[in-house]
Write a structure and sequence with these properties.
The chain is built from 1 helix and 15 strands, in the order E-E-E-E-E-E-E-E-E-E-E-E-E-H-E-E. It is mainly beta and about 210 residues long. The chain has one domain: Sandwich (Jelly Rolls).
């Protein structure tokens, strides 16, 4: 008996669709790839484990940035519940003032959406805004604190001064980078009359609440 010919079945992409009642799917899309081809990155996040924060920072000087003691290599920071600190070492560069603007935030808002922000398949239901000059606890010192303890939560900040809002006097103040930071609601702050290197701490807490 001749073998029965199998029916052809067209693949259905829906068969491979993933979903989760606990996780949230983020979609980072971009058309800035060779040959004009679109691209994207998919990432699952667990809103019960950490809050995905976006960091935008501008400084008038060169800077080293640390999150809870670890060097920051990306604009994406996953913050678990509890106390945290963004630590910044501003290096002396000529007459450049010790000025900076920073935004460390998460929001479920989809419009207007800033460039490079991901889309999500559902809301996490939480919001966090750490904005320089708009309520964020940011202090600095021109005296070398030494070691690594100043980069960590719980460090004794007595003797450090609060950074105050300033008007940028540098040529880069009109640059797109700074403007993108200011669009988030952050302001330029600085340590008046600071000379040499300056060390800065921005402390905040994350509370994940009762879930999405």
């Amino acid at each position: 008996m001749a073998e029965k010919k199998r029916d052809l079945v067209v693949n259905d992409l829906a068969r491979y669709e993933k979903s989760s009642e606990r996780l949230v799917l983020e979609d980072y899309s971009s058309c800035e790839v060779p040959a004009g081809c679109g691209g994207g990155i998919l990432r699952w996040i667990d809103p019960q484990e950490a809050l995905p924060l976006t960091l935008r920072i501008w400084t008038a000087r060169g800077a080293e940035v640390f999150f809870d003691g670890a060097p920051v290599r990306s604009s994406r920071i996953d913050a678990r519940p509890g106390a945290h600190v963004l630590a910044i070492a501003l290096r002396h560069e000529g007459d450049a003032p010790a000025d900076l603007a920073l935004s460390l935030r998460y929001s479920d808002e989809t419009e207007p959406r800033a460039a490079l922000e991901p889309t999500r398949d559902r809301s996490i239901g939480r919001r966090l805004d750490v904005l320089s000059g708009a309520g964020a606890a940011i202090v600095g010192t021109s005296g070398d604190p030494g070691g690594d303890a100043w980069k960590l939560p719980g460090f004794d900040e007595r003797g450090w001064r609060a950074l105050a809002p300033v008007k940028a006097a540098t040529k880069s103040s009109a640059g797109w980078h700074l403007q993108e930071v200011l669009k988030t609601g952050a302001c330029i702050v600085g340590l008046p009359d600071a000379r040499g290197d300056v060390w800065v701490r921005c402390s905040f807490d994350v509370d994940l609440g009762g879930g999405p």
